[in-house]
Structure formats: C-alpha cells, structure tokens
Amino acid sequence: MPKRALLSVADKRGLLPFAKGLAKAGFEMIATGGTLKALRDEGISAISVEEITGVPEMLGGRVKTMHPKITGGILLRRDHPKDLEEAKKHGIEPIDLVAINLYPFEETIAKASVTREEAIEQMDIGGPALLRSAAKNHTYVTAVCDPLDYDRVLKELKSEGHTSAKFRSELAAKVFLRTAAYDTIIAEYLGGGATKGILLVNGMKLRYGENPHQKGWFYNVFPVGQERSCPTGKTPWTMHQGKELSYLNLLDADAAWNLIQDFPKPTAACIKHANPSGVASHADITEAFQRAYDADRLSAFGVIIALNRPCTEEIARKIINQKIFTEVVVAPEFEGDALNILKEKPNIRCLTIDGELRKGLQYRSAVGGLLVQDHDVSAVKESDFTIVSKKRPTKEQIQDLLFAWTVVKHAKSNAIVFAKDRITVGIGCGQTSRIDSTWIAAKRAGEKAKGAVMASDAFFPFPDSVEEAAKHGIGAVIQPGGSIRDSEVFAKADELGLAMATTGVRAFRH
C-alpha cells in the first residue's frame, strides 16, 4: 500500500516542489479544492477528498474534510489491533503525512474594510482539527503546518525513506503552537481587545537569574497574530564568544542596544545596571567609544559596551590595552580581526543583534500578570522645542540639548543628564527626588559641567534643580514642562541667565 499525504493549504508557497518531492518519495496525494486544482494544473497526480469520503463539500465549503475516512486515517494507530480491525471494517486507510496551513484569519482582520461576516468565514475549523489529529498521532504521522519545513521533510524522506521520530515530535509541537496562536488571535478579535495573547517559546536556560541563587531563562516572545508561520527558534541576538549569559547580562544588553538605536550618528554607550554611565557621538565610532568610556571610567567596571556601528579592530584593541573590565560588547557586527583580538579576554561576551527590537509591544511582569505598552520610540527635533527663557540656546547648545535628551530617555527616573560636545559629562538617575539626581550628575561632572547643558526626563516640580545646575556652570536646560510651578522654574532660568527649552514630552523610565 502506498504512503498517503493529505494536502490542503491556503498559503501555496513551496507547494508544487513539495508535492513533486512527495510523489518522487512514493506518496499518493489527497487534496482539497484550490490545492487540488494547483496540483492538477501542474500535472501532479492527486485525488480529491470527495473521492475518499464519497461526500461532496457542503455548506459553502464549511464541511469538506471532517469525515471518519480522513480523521480516522490520520488518527489510526498502526500497531493497535483493535484500531486496525475497525479501520478495515469501515474502509479507512492510513494517512501518513498531513500538510495544512490555516485560513488567513490574521491577514483578513488586518484589512480596514473587513466585515465581521468575512472574518468569521476565515476562522478555520477543519484545518486545526486535522493538524492537531496528525500532531497527536505523530508516532506515525508527519504533521506539517509551515511551508518553511517542506525542504526538511523532503530531505529526511530522501535520505531515510521516512521522517525521524524526533523530527515528527518537533513538528507536532510546532502544530500545537500554531493552533494555539491561531485560536488566541480569534479570541482577541471576538473579545474586542479584552484578551491579548502571547506565546513564550524556545526557552533557553541562563547562567542564573538576577542573583546566583536564582534560576533564569530567556524566551522568545511570540505575539500571536503578527506572523502566519510558527516561531522558528531563532533568538534576535547571536553570541560569538564569552561565558554563558546571565539574566542581568541580557537586561543590560537590552538597555544598551535600545539606547544607541535612538542615535542616527555613530554612537557608543557604556551601560551599568541598565543605566548609561557614559555616552558619546562622533563621526568616528572608535573616537565615540573612547569618549564614552572616558566620560565615567569609575563606573565603567563590569560594564556593557554598545556600539551602533561595527566594532572596529581598533576598538577591540582599546578594550584589551586599557584593561577595561567589560561583561558584554554588543554591536551590529565585528569588523576584521576584532573578535580574535577580544578572544584575549575569553570571558567577554560578544553579541550581534539582528534587526530592530522595538517593534510590537513591550512586556513587563507585575503582581499577578503582565504590564503591556508600546515601546518609547519618540524623538524630539529642534522644531519640537518651545523656548521658554529670554535667552535662546546657541546652535551648539541645541545640538547638545538634543543629544542629552536622547540619553535621558534611557536613564532610570528621576533622571538628569549633563552633556557637552555630544558627550555625557555627568548622569544622575534612579533617585527618589530630582534634586538628588542633579547633585549626583554635578558631582560626576565636576569641572566638566561648565558650559554643559542639562536634560531632565520630567518637569521640575521646584526651581531647586535649575539653581543647582547653574552653580556648576550649566548654560542651557531641556525638560518636558508641565509643572504647576512652570512659571517659577522659567523665571529662575531667566534670573540665572540660562536658556531653557521644553519638549512637551515626558521620558520616564522605571
């Protein structure tokens, strides 16, 4: 008896080469409507589901594959005498491979003009049932829900004559992920936003959690409905060398990468405990790195280094020659011999990041659930400023204000950043009062505060931070504005001869 495959695909990518490969491997193919037509148009032999069941499609296509001769052929246990006896009695023949992808419900509801009736008709019923049946019976049946797996299936069939038990189990897990995601997006649609689905997949055990006595894992977050295919198992980052990653390594690397992505110009950042300790922009990324490190060498111990340009060999040599104790270096790529140079310190974790991490939603655990929000990708331009002081900032100060504002977005609230010549000279953050952060920034800056600018992530509740900044030589200030004491704060800036701009945008980061 020939092996049999059931094919019913809405997404016909790769269908024809896959079917030809199955035919070459000795499979007889059963197909539904559009899939059957596509195969026959190409001259590929296939029989219709109706020929198997003896029952035509009905109810506008809602009923076609849910029949004992189909579901029974999939669920039949080949080594159970009772199953085999009943299958023979009812004329049920085994189906060995099921390749189905589901009606495009996600794509349908993404259309602005879609009606509820149209959406409901794209809720696949038979497809998930048949895929789940095949996945349940994966001891005997290969369940394929993703066109990206066609080549792997054909490769195993060609080399072994059958798919391996391990591969069938992997595909079965993928089916249940896919149907779970599919059902969840339908629930989201019908619930009108009252529910939100995510899947945590590809769990990777980390070195430890926040502390060595805690266990830690990394999971890919798969927001259901964003993709039609199942999660592939790839993380967005690649580790090229170094010790096993810990929970905090990834938290810090995430903070570092998100910060430098906000800068279009070559920029380097040193991150400590998810806060920037030094950031610098310069036409030359190597110079930007050196300036960022020099901004606060004391804090740059056990530091995360992030670059928004490739890591050069020169940067790698600077890290080694200056004996910088760095936990992680993250960059879009490592040029030339940079990785080999960094191997002199084999514990340094070298990461590259693939793509933009700030798409979709941001998730954070909270008591009993998750907090969900959009990523803060807001950007302030000079045209967004409102100058609220009598004195206007100079062109040079404006460039520094924009730079400082971009950095302050990525420091924990209450956050204050002093900057000059596109280099941070003092950062105060994570304090319970804004004046405390200002004192810390001033202490870090020392004499470098003279002629620098100051950015605040939220409005000034009192004029005290402005007074403190002026004592240390700050010449211009940028802040959101919006305090009930704005008039007092603006007046204090005028009294002290400072330029002040407001953005109208708050930049809290907790």
If you had to describe this structure to a student in words, what would you say it looks like?
Helices cover 36% and strands 21% of the residues. The protein is an alpha/beta fold and 510 residues long. The strands form 5 sheets. It has a 6-stranded mixed β-sheet with strand order 8-13-12-11-9-10. A hairpin with a 2-residue loop joins strand 17 (416-420) and strand 18. Helix 1 packs parallel to helix 9, helix 4 (68-75) packs parallel to helix 8 and helix 16 (434-445) packs parallel to helix 17.
What is the multimeric organization of the chains shown? single chain
* N-C termini distance: 65 Å
- Radius of gyration computed on alpha carbons: 30 Å
Ranges where pLDDT stays below 50 over 5 or more residues in a row are: 225-232
Strand neighbour order, sheet with most strands:
8-13-12-11-9-10
- Helical amount among residues, as a percent range? 25-40%
Percent in strands: 15-25%
Q: Shape from CA axes?
A: elongated
- Structural class of the secondary elements? alpha/beta
Mean pLDDT: 89
Helical run tally: 18
How many strand units?
A: 21
Please summarize the sheet with the most strands: 6 strands, mixed
Summary, kept brief:
The protein is of the alpha/beta class and 510 residues long. The protein has helices at residues 15-24, 33-41, 49-53, 68-75, 81-90, 105-109, 116-121, 126-136, 150-160, 165-190, 247-260, 285-295, 313-321, 338-342, 395-408, 434-445, 464-471, 486-496; strands spanning 3-9, 27-31, 47-48, 97-101, 142-144, 198-205, 217-223, 237-241, 267-272, 275-281, 303-307, 326-331, 349-353, 361-366, 369-374, 386-387, 416-420, 423-428, 453-456, 476-479, 499-502.
